[in-house]
Amino acid sequence: MCQREFGRAVAQAVGTNCCQPGTQALGTHSRSIQSNNPRALAGSVDLDGCLKNQYPHAPRWDFAVGYGECRLLVFVEVHGAKVGDILAKKHWLDGFLKGQGAALSAWAGRQVFAWVPTQGGFGRHTPQARQLKRQGIITNRRVWLKC
User: Fold this and answer.
1) Are 92 and 57 contacting, i.e. CB atoms less than 8 angstroms apart?
2) Hey, which of 2, 89, 98, 139 has its CA 20 to 30 A from 129?
3) What pLDDT digit, counting tens, does each position of 61-96 carry?
4) Are the C-beta atoms of 118 and 143 separated by less than 8 Å?
């Protein structure tokens, strides 16, 4: 079950029945999310799946995970994309969070944007990594939730 306040924010921003307990919304990708305190997970949402009918042609971001202890909201993009694709998705997400998704932003004490490459990727000191970092996107195969 989703933490109540996080579930309300998800319902308002994305839709009812979109908030899933723990990291269940990430399906097989849930193993890329790590936490020292799994009980603090507020819930997760498949943004791409829940918003595909409203924004069928938009470069939607994949997932969001709430960590209730400190109201950490982590947006997770999981696949082997090009930097340009990730930046387009981040641009869309920024606009979404200022509009329809404002309830998620309001819930969050802090937001983190993470790309988890499923194949390939690049080193942390490459031009591609620096370009993503300038846009506030971290790149790692595992995302640690901690306050």
Assistant:
1) no
2) 98
3) 999 999 987 999 999 999 876 889 999 999 999 999
4) no
Euclidean distance between CA atoms 18 and 67, whole angstroms: 16
- CA 74 to CA 78: how far, in whole Å? 12
Separation CA 41–CA 60 (nearest Å): 23
Is 81:59 a contact under the CB 8 Å cutoff? Answer: no
51-84: burial string, b at 16+ Cβ within 10 Å, e else: beeeeeebbbbbbbbbbbbebbbbbbbbeebebe
* Residues 82 and 90 sit within 8 Å (Cβ to Cβ): no
What is the rounded distance in angstroms from the CA atom of residue 133 to the CA atom of residue 95?
A: 19
Asked if pLDDT for residue 25 goes beyond 80, the answer is yes
86-144: per-residue pLDDT in tens? 999 999 999 999 999 999 999 999 999 999 987 766 777 788 888 999 999 998 888 99
